[in-house]
Fold each of these.
Amino acid sequence: MSLELNGIRWNFPGSEWRLRVNRIRIPGGEVLVVIGPNGSGKSTLLRIAAGILRPRAGHVLFEGSDIFRLSRAAVARRLGYLPQETGSDTDFTVSELARLGRYPHTGLFGGMAAADRAIVRECLEQTGLETLADRPLSRLSGGERKRAFLASVLTQKPEVLLLDEPAASLDLHHQVRFFRLLRRLARTGLGIAVVTHDINFAALYGDRLLFLMNGSVLAWDSPDAALRAENVRAAYGRSVTLLTHPTAGRPAVLPLPEGDESP
Amino acid sequence: MKPRLLLALGIIFGLTLLITPWIGPESVRPADALSAIRGELSPRGMIFWQQRLPRVLLALIAGGTLAVAGAAFQALFRNPLVEPFTLGISGGSALGAFLAISIPGLWFTWGPFGSIQVTALLGAAASLFLIDRLAGRSARLSVSTLLLAGVTVSIICSGAILLLTYVATPNALVVYQRWMMGGVDIIGYRDLIALLPMWLPGLALVAGQSDRLNHLALGEEMALGHGVNVRSVQRRVFVGGGLATAAVVSLVGPIGFVGLIVPHAVRRLGATDQRTILPGAFLLGGTVLTVCDAAARTVIAPTELPVGIITAVIGGPLFIRMLVSRGRRSRPQ
């Protein structure tokens, strides 16, 4: 399994801003966390990697073949993508939503075999939603809803998982659970790329970080190397300070109070 | 999926088919209808078999089709207010069909089939082309703009039709009068056969998209992520909805609001899955239009009302109510 981005170039029509990513690989069994300030191109890059946005130049190679030459269903059988924004005007239940992820594997009318139903159950258990299976989405909390959408991506049984700020609206406890779930999934062989704004989560749960700024790659490296002081300062300025996590030994970032500047 | 809801709607649909042919200004007794079996058709038996039954069948088909098209467009645009009528597709079809009725050079028939279906389809295609250009201009076009455009297209089309009535022959005017206000009364079995070549593939094309339309409720990116080719769903619903609507409108005229009320009611009955909503809309839409038509031929008997008047009187206020309440709520139905 591999997803490879080569020589990616993108710009919004009429805009000066340019995304330039020369070579990134998302290998199986690893969690790649994409970080960077607002407007650094994280979501755009993820959409290109998912084959949803066609770059102006460059290639996305999925198992060696151009992702834009494959049908959407063929991509979806092996690659799961959770966008930042999902539709809210639906009253599907959790299990109805999760079932939809089986689409690329089932027929035109979504007929489900026993095996498909077992996969849906398994994914609801993985995301801790088995007791909420028959609850409509409108009656879920923000975190439960996010997990329900993740479950619907997991039922695709993807080998690569691309997640755009999946934990953004979750409380600390659920964020921790979410990232631990990603680690467990990576151990089963999935290649995961996840966009987040939270550098501490990135450092703690990422095998590798992709640090973007202004559409360019600031670092594609281990958390320790990517979160060097000069990178953090370049991206976020002097109003944050770099520490070491007390038990994990990974880098951590804290905001500084007013008037306090890091060197 | 809710098979029990579909079963219930199916039973009501069946009962409507069995009961409504007996309703009308002239009473028909079972003995009259059964006279056909003995091979000697009484005048009232003729009314039953040659007028009432094809009329009921057409109302079932037309109401069902408009409701399915409405439900599919609502899922596609993620808005409960769009339907063939408010999108201007009915208006376009009506103008096209009326061109064939009023301009002698455009009127051809081949057996049961006629140029009227072709011109209705061209009218529907013109409206759909406009919608597609508008919706394609910005990814998340505000649906009120689309509705405004659709209603404006309807107004332009009825204006053009009114204009044509001044150049039309008196003969065509008689046809037009009943047809424009939405009537299912000038009908025989030949007309039902004439429906088939456009109606059947159109409806099948839309029905085939039912599970994919479920994904569109999750947003375009999520649907693409699940492996749904969103653009192909759009195209198929446009083509299928256009074909089926044009076929029906060419026969019954622009009957409004069935495509609005009926899918709304089916969702109110608890259906969330398009695989329930689309067939449910067909069954309930057929029932509603047939019952409205039965009312249309009895309320001020012996004069018969065009059924379009009844659907407009019920559907128009509901449309306005939904429009207003949508402005207040952020979450659509």
Amino acid sequence: MPFDFAVVLIFLAVSAGFVWAAMFVGKLVRPHRPDAQKLQTYECGERPIGAAWYNFNPRFYLLALVFIIFDVEIALTFPVGVVARAWVEAGHGLTVVVEILLFVAVLVAALAYVWGRGDLNWVRDLEHEAPLPPVEPPPDAALTREVHS
Amino acid sequence: MAGTTESLARFAPELVLSATILAILIVDLIARLQPKRPSLLSGVALVGLSAMAGALWLTPTGDTSLFTHLLAFDGLARYFKGFFILAAALGVLFGHLSDEISRSRLGEYYIQLLCLTLGLSLLASAQNLLMLYLALELVSLPSYVLSGFRWWDRRASEAALKYVVFGGAASGVMLYGFSLIYGITGTLQIDGVAAALTAAATGGQGIAGQLGLLMAVMLSLAGFGYKVAAVPFHMWCPDVYEGAPTTFVAFLSVAPKAAGFAALIRFFVVGFGQPAPGAAGFPWAEILGIIAIGTMTLGNVVAVTQDNVKRLLAYSSIAQAGYLIMALAVGTDEAIRAVMLYLGFYLLMNMGAFFGVQLAGGERLSAFRGMASRNATLAITMAIFLFSLTGIPPFAGFIGKFYLFAAVLSVGEPFFYALAIIGVLNSAISLYYYAKVVRVMFLDKAEEGDGVVEVSRPASALLLALAGPTLLFGVWWAPLADLIDKASSILR
Amino acid sequence: MIIGLNHFQVVSALLFGLGLLTIITRRNAVAVLMGVELVLNAGLVNLVAISRYQTGGLDGQIFALFGVVLAAAEAVVALAIVLQLFRARRSVDTIDVTDMRG
């Protein structure tokens, strides 16, 4: 019984070792030129110190929404993974591979679409788009272009 | 049951549609700066839909289940797939002619519209609760996005929010219902449900099991009822129709509703063995009948007070769903054929009516004032669609309603007589508000500021192409009725 | 005490009820969406528990997996709509944003 958990222990050790190795190699390779801004506590694009209850830049939400979709879609490859071994043994290995490749290809096409339309850019480039139709303009058209400092 | 290769061969229509969606995605990306982009995109969409129709036509006949009983490929599925291809093609054409969809976002619009069509096509075949749920969500998600397509419009974003909140709640409730059905019958297959119920009925099921099943089915009905906009799940309908782009509403009011009925037919007739008398000891027919009465009465009565034509048509489409549920309550083969026939006519007249609103350049009743003198084609075709929706001869709607009521009366039970009488009374109410629009178009004089309504030549041609069959089927409906007789087989 | 199917079903029913309650009583659109997620997850808990304790097989669990993905997709669409609504209206209060009635 205790030996069943040896796998977990080895897994933990390897993953911890992996993190350590990556940090160590990074330390060896990267240039070391600290300045005040770099030494700040890291907080992805936001003020690191102060009250956390303020309006985040809406661009964050858009990127997060795109991220979540791609993140969760991967769960759909899980059932294929469960049956993969049985299928390979039955001689249908190619089917499994093609299926997963097709699935990923569709996701890649979608990612290319989002990227190509500029929805991943922090400052969205609206020049290529036709002007908005002559309806009441969005109240904060400027917000879309706002650069976060 | 078909093996994987054969399943894939019979799945060709959906595969072609998926390829079309990807093609539009790529064309939209590559041709971003092309001035001809809108025509190019519409062309790709229409070619793709034609290819899908071709694939559907070429698939070998014979009813079978695909992919280990996930999807049924039978007459019902084939008919509805054809129906959705036609509706989607019209949706693409309407979108191409619409000035509500900005040209730079046309590709986006088509992608969503065709994803929705893919969901509809799967919904018509789904034979398994998981597949049913997936297809329903694939229909819902693009619908939410498209109803908020003009996001800078206050009403559009409000409509989209209401749609997504009600829709999410309804699909959650339905999922809970499915999980109960799974618990009670131990299967996700719809035909398996029928078998489990028969076994339980002969084995003498406890009162608790019976009650649980009743609960489960009522909860599942929430999801379907929401899709077809049946009372009491209709609240989203008028607001979404008012706020969403008219060109999309034309599609939304027809195709998802038809798919909802296809799924309901499979769910009740196949899964619960309706109309077998007291199937598993439950009064399904009475429950559906009461929903039908509520739906058509509410739709018709509230429509009377509307002065926004889109809202009026929204309530009218609720009422139309009521007539269809009435026939569904009967559940005989004859009734199912009547539902299919009526939906075929409904496609023509309802999409036509909304296309008319799209072209009229305003959705208030006052925008239609004196339309006869401002654009005769629009006024006359609009009148044809509206009278057909009322169900008066010699329009297609009359034939459709005739078949529906005949199916209800042929049961010969007091409950169904009462149902039919209420249906006829409702039709009489509907004449009032449909005729109100026609009166405004023909009898009211155009006032100052009501200029000529410019309608492009292709748009007029499209209007006539929809109005023509609406008239023709009113006197010569045999071809469609024959087609449906041949196509109405259901895998049980 | 052995945890069995009934316990899971009670949890699921509670989740379902709380979700519906949230949907009905909350005014903030985002909170309403949280209620929707609760209702969805109630169904998923039920499915997994039933397939584990009662029917066997993987049907219910696969259903739950797809359900999770769809719930995420639905949440994304819903939040995107709420975001647009906020840009158009400066409010996400479901009562404030209601213009259309009747």
Amino acid sequence: MRAYYVIIIVLMGVVTYATRVGFIGVARQFELHPLLRRSLEYVPVSVLAALVFPAILAPSGRLESPGTNVYLWAAAITAGIFAWTRKPLVGIIVGVSSMILLRRLT
Amino acid sequence: MDDANRAQTPPAGRHQFRLGLTKTLPVVAGCVPFGLAYGVLSVQGGLTVAETMLMSLVVFAGASQFLAVGMFSSGVDGVTIVVSTLLINVRHLVMGLSLSPYLTEVKPWWQRMLAFGMADETYLTTITHYREQGAEQGSPHFMLGSAVAMYVSWAIASLVGAVAGNSVSDPLKWGLDFAMPATFLTMLLPQVTSRRLFAVVTSAALAAVSAYLLIPGKWYILVAVLVGTLTGLTLETRADRIAERPTP
């Protein structure tokens, strides 16, 4: 391992850990304002929406037309199979398999 | 300490740890292609297998690792790499904040240890579990189990990718990059249980896509959180006001 790379990687680790540990103990030390507590309720779904929709609607960094966007089709298949079977893993496996097939066909 | 927490004696802790492991498995399956791709791209970009692994073990943050590998291979200076890493990971602050009410009874050393394992995936699995449970406090053992599952599989996937390195192509090109959004989609759908949450998700999605197209980096996640939260709060306040209005 080259020293320069090790130093940069360790510093990357330090700043990343700082962002993770920064606020995790806030509620232990301070009483959170009720408004803040209520707003935190919406954080997980918003993060999920942010991780799902850009990846599906703009997979290559640009908005793609729904007709040719295989990610959108595969997402519809995933959602449909999941709604039908109620099993996340089945939805994911069928969705990803359909994605690989669609990639081959298009 | 309340009764639910007092019951967190070793057996209950072990149960929650195991539950954390198993509940994270679908997400793990989704992240494996990314770990492989990271390993492949890192070695192709000029990092050694050991350096590639060091980054997975010390940084443990997918997006910033991909970015760093790209920057290393194009000769970007170290300060820029570290600052970019910080900026891309600022979103963790909000995630930590939203977890913190569930961890108020947990000792600070526990919090500091759990923080290390808080990636997007472990955060989402853990907070979803805490909310499903409906208790005031979350089990730290659950989050630990989730983090261990993610950490170990991220390390193994990086290693396999790095060792296969120069002999394979990027596995994400086959369509395996869809595994992650597919996993998050199955986590998102069951949480849309009311019109208000539907509005929150729609507004967060619109904000995320717009910000994703317009702003480089991972800021779109924070933009989505801001817009989603404001939408939720506004609708909540309006519903409260309508409920308080005296019926004629």
Amino acid sequence: MLTGTKLEALLARLRRALDERNGGDVEAAEKVFREVVAEAQRLGFASAYVHYMLSGALDRMGKLEMAFDELKKAVRADPLAIPVRHAFQDVAARLRAALADPARAADDEAIPRLYTLLVEAGEADLEAHLAMVRFAVATAQLERARALAEAVTTLFPVAREAWEALARVARAQGDVGRAAAADAEAAGVGVQAPLFGVTGKALA
Amino acid sequence: MSRQTVEQVLLKVQAAQSLSSEDPEQAELFLRSALKDCVAIGQSSASLHLQLAELLYRLRRTREALQEVLEVVELDPFNLAALSLRQALGRRLRSERAVAARSII
């Protein structure tokens, strides 16, 4: 067990950081939390608790991407900490919403960064992938867009939007055959075959 | 720890959390089972020990709670919640001893 004056000094700093955070001086708290994280690492500890506290301070400052990064570290250090899990899911959802924000320009340079953060954490959803496809098209990276769109249709084979995105990319590439095939898939998605092959309304 | 296993253990932890006020004994069983799962897959979790310590504290099983808190501090010496609980448990243990000593006299 880690004991001694060095630990006591670190704990005193940690308590001060918490006080500062609660008192509103979040920047000062972030600085101290980071110092404690670094010192703890030097001592061979990855403290889920400190990463979690640091993420809270970063979130309060609007540094959502940094907060997410700290939460990833906290989950890695203690994957069974439920409050950490909840915070992780909450921040991931807000990052997804930020990425898929309709007000965001298709070629916004923040898109690849947000997308990578979510993919690395296994938290990218259909909307996130489609935002990245749109970015690749908008920045003239058609091959990248095509590869991603193909992958998205594999991940979400019953999502009409995925096939429509693939059709758009294929059309932009001049691949009329693939575009038509993707359009056909899009048209077929969501159309349910009638139960037992019977159409019409059952009558008593 | 594989993702599937984490999810399975998490279910037990969540079950324990929802049971902790209505049926703390059952919650304890879930938590101990989750801890056993962790050991089986070579994982440790300070938060799981802390959850059990808090439960035992509420059940007034001071010594057992202290044992769990010491596990937390071993795994994560910077966990201030565990350090506060350790202090509270220490105070309670001392007062329990004092009561026991008085009853002997």
